[in-house]
């Protein structure tokens, strides 16, 4: 039976607790979801025959076919006999040969030097420069890591720890703070906490489609006074879970703010390829910073994170774990230490190969291009589905969802009936946890409760991975509707 | 749970991941910088002008086509947010000798050679890191076939792949989300892989039971080791966690402890006794440490790195008794478990010995044991596959551990798949069995031969003394450095063995790691050299070391 006490113990009373408890809830709900799957397998009767898990932004787990080119290159690198196999296209074999040539001993089984396989670092820097309209990128300022989460965590080690003031309190220190969006990806918050830093929450503006507001940043900074010494500002663009995509003006404002308040910018840009709204484009912090010119472009310190696990191409390789961070304006003396830390943890070679493909996909004229192109076109289909799901959700009374701009997730607001809220409180649960638990039990739908990401008091949300709907959305829409109305039972 | 089984690693102590909010904000002002390991980190010289002159980003300098020095003159005088003075001081303490200055110089030399610059050698030989494939060791064909099939399942229709490789690939894919190697796995690792690991451990340990729930798949062994240390480190001042590590040690441990601000407690291995562990020495170390910290864990590397010793069963029993008596959490780094070469030596896992010592120990002593795909006969470092098994861990702590590993989502799935193949290789009767055995035996017997050869040749050099390389992948010979050389090194501000290794690199192109990177008794000097180069190359290498040492000794005496 479901261990309610675990969920009960989870009181999302403040920002810190929320981040710490995130995985408790997630784990408890996951445990229950696994149990339900098992029960279904054993033939236990339920109002549904299959459990649909929309908690993850992992399209491959949801049955999407992998990108052939990436898999072929990897297979040839793993088993170099395939370099002579005519069944693999020539560009695949050529790519694999080039990569193997730069691996020590010609094997993907050896360690790589920093920042990673040299060819991959070069490809990434060319990719960045292309993406950013020609703004140069130095491969020596790129570090490849096992996933962006990991890189972010490592990076926070430099910024988010103790800033010692030797004379203060006889050698004691002031904790470093990191301004962190709310709602935000809880794992990031957790890692700030885990590293001994203080997350300083700033609320995203839901009414304005989850926009970042400078006034709110100011407020957060002032609120942190006396509690910690804020040294870094963490931004997620496109937003997770909010799905908001920042425009140039907004990014400029954030950069100016960081410059004025002397904050190190940590830009989490792993969803840069996931843009769903027409007529908007992803702009990287690096690009906007460079285009702002002096004094900003020379001074504002920035670390920008990207990953092979997300985005249009990379989405087929989450499990390979490849990410990178590009460092801009970092003090070279500090950079030396960053390299030391990264040198302890070699990025997995398969992940590096995934990054190579993401940064340098097949080009027109290459044998693999036509197949790759159809994959790209599939994205249009996904975009359509994402929009449809959004429409269905928004048509439900009590559900309000912002137009889906980008990112892998959506974060609709749910108005819960007072009776449901009361019932949850009686059980000692956060109302949205209760809602998600009922959704899981009664409808076989596995959503993530919004309290795990941080939300304004009295508002409730759920997070879902948009692309999951690509596969099962029709079925899902019906279910959401059905369930939503069954919940109305609490209202009567 | 009875009082005797009470665990000292309780959630209450898990400050890192489970700190009460008030404590979290309030404790900072009283925090001491984590004992001796951090106390010297705050003294780097501060110079505003140097900040100003520091190279600005390549972005702006190349954008405007200006030389970097000019950039500081355009009126920008603000120091960076993140400088040596303001960065996390524990990070500055981190050193990683196996990829330290010598290796950086080796990379430079390689580049200079490729640019046609004259050197007294034709190639750089990197004997600094246990990277078997870089040294020409061939991968196990079966493993790579299965991985290739998993990455590109269309190949399942290719009749050049053996049936057992295909079956194995299908089985792995079935247990992956969406039948794809590209999907995230559960944080603890793919269920069926953990099951296979558990079966492997049971077989290895003569039937001692193993619960897959105790298995965590990790990103190489390092990830597991660091994760466990994170769980263990807490307390302030005299209550700060101390972790016992051997000297010499593998620098991952000292680096992780420095980063976590834990207290490193050194215990010395007995060089005169083939680098064995000595309980009296452990006792000395723990007694002294109790004066200034709270010793809570004991790390053992068996077979040893860099020292190559293989622990006897008796020694392991003694260590377990010691850990029980002193209430220490045991961390057994057993990544070289297949790398045992010396006659009469055998690998005994801590788990097996623990369970054979009876319930008094097997039900109480907490143990984490680590393994990886990077060493042994496979040497697949690039995949970052590994696992850890935790034994007798408090259930609540285990929940916290699961949470902690969830932060990094999951270990790389190709590495998990490889780990699965390592613990579940081809079986007798399967098409790939014979070639697998042949490849494995060839690699292991070549390593055994190279271990012996290394010891023999090094011991012919006056001034070099090498203990038998019983296991693992390295020799760690003691070298006599003449007084004059020591003097010159110290004048240069270098450790004498760093000076020695740097000179060897410049003159011979051989890249070794100085003993000071691993720790050694004061006044003794060593280097670590891998036994991995192909045998012909190894012979040349050893003879070059011999010549160099003789020349060096002559030059400085």
TrEMBL record, chain A:
<keyword id="KW-0808">Transferase</keyword>
<dbReference type="GO" id="GO:0042853">
    <property type="term" value="P:L-alanine catabolic process"/>
</dbReference>
<comment type="subunit">
    <text>Homodimer.</text>
</comment>
<keyword id="KW-0032">Aminotransferase</keyword>
<comment type="pathway">
    <text>Amino-acid degradation; L-alanine degradation via transaminase pathway; pyruvate from L-alanine: step 1/1.</text>
</comment>
<dbReference type="GO" id="GO:0030170">
    <property type="term" value="F:pyridoxal phosphate binding"/>
</dbReference>
<dbReference type="InterPro" id="IPR015424">
    <property type="entry name" value="PyrdxlP-dep_Trfase"/>
</dbReference>
<dbReference type="InterPro" id="IPR015422">
    <property type="entry name" value="PyrdxlP-dep_Trfase_small"/>
</dbReference>
<dbReference type="GO" id="GO:0004021">
    <property type="term" value="F:L-alanine:2-oxoglutarate aminotransferase activity"/>
</dbReference>
<dbReference type="InterPro" id="IPR004839">
    <property type="entry name" value="Aminotransferase_I/II_large"/>
</dbReference>
<dbReference type="InterPro" id="IPR015421">
    <property type="entry name" value="PyrdxlP-dep_Trfase_major"/>
</dbReference>
<feature type="domain" description="Aminotransferase class I/classII large">
    <location>
        <begin position="88"/>
        <end position="451"/>
    </location>
</feature>
<dbReference type="InterPro" id="IPR045088">
    <property type="entry name" value="ALAT1/2-like"/>
</dbReference>
<protein>
    <recommendedName>
        <fullName>alanine transaminase</fullName>
        <ecNumber>2.6.1.2</ecNumber>
    </recommendedName>
</protein>
<comment type="similarity">
    <text>Belongs to the class-I pyridoxal-phosphate-dependent aminotransferase family. Alanine aminotransferase subfamily.</text>
</comment>
<dbReference type="Pfam" id="PF00155">
    <property type="entry name" value="Aminotran_1_2"/>
</dbReference>
<keyword id="KW-0663">Pyridoxal phosphate</keyword>
TrEMBL record, chain B:
<dbReference type="GO" id="GO:0005737">
    <property type="term" value="C:cytoplasm"/>
</dbReference>
<comment type="similarity">
    <text>Belongs to the class-I pyridoxal-phosphate-dependent aminotransferase family. Alanine aminotransferase subfamily.</text>
</comment>
<comment type="function">
    <text>Catalyzes the reversible transamination between alanine and 2-oxoglutarate to form pyruvate and glutamate.</text>
</comment>
<keyword id="KW-0032">Aminotransferase</keyword>
<dbReference type="InterPro" id="IPR045088">
    <property type="entry name" value="ALAT1/2-like"/>
</dbReference>
<dbReference type="InterPro" id="IPR015421">
    <property type="entry name" value="PyrdxlP-dep_Trfase_major"/>
</dbReference>
<comment type="subunit">
    <text>Homodimer.</text>
</comment>
<dbReference type="Pfam" id="PF00155">
    <property type="entry name" value="Aminotran_1_2"/>
</dbReference>
<keyword id="KW-0663">Pyridoxal phosphate</keyword>
<feature type="domain" description="Aminotransferase class I/classII large">
    <location>
        <begin position="160"/>
        <end position="542"/>
    </location>
</feature>
<comment type="pathway">
    <text>Amino-acid degradation; L-alanine degradation via transaminase pathway; pyruvate from L-alanine: step 1/1.</text>
</comment>
<protein>
    <recommendedName>
        <fullName>alanine transaminase</fullName>
        <ecNumber>2.6.1.2</ecNumber>
    </recommendedName>
</protein>
<dbReference type="InterPro" id="IPR015424">
    <property type="entry name" value="PyrdxlP-dep_Trfase"/>
</dbReference>
<dbReference type="GO" id="GO:0042853">
    <property type="term" value="P:L-alanine catabolic process"/>
</dbReference>
<keyword id="KW-0808">Transferase</keyword>
<dbReference type="InterPro" id="IPR004839">
    <property type="entry name" value="Aminotransferase_I/II_large"/>
</dbReference>
<dbReference type="GO" id="GO:0004021">
    <property type="term" value="F:L-alanine:2-oxoglutarate aminotransferase activity"/>
</dbReference>
<dbReference type="GO" id="GO:0030170">
    <property type="term" value="F:pyridoxal phosphate binding"/>
</dbReference>
<dbReference type="InterPro" id="IPR015422">
    <property type="entry name" value="PyrdxlP-dep_Trfase_small"/>
</dbReference>
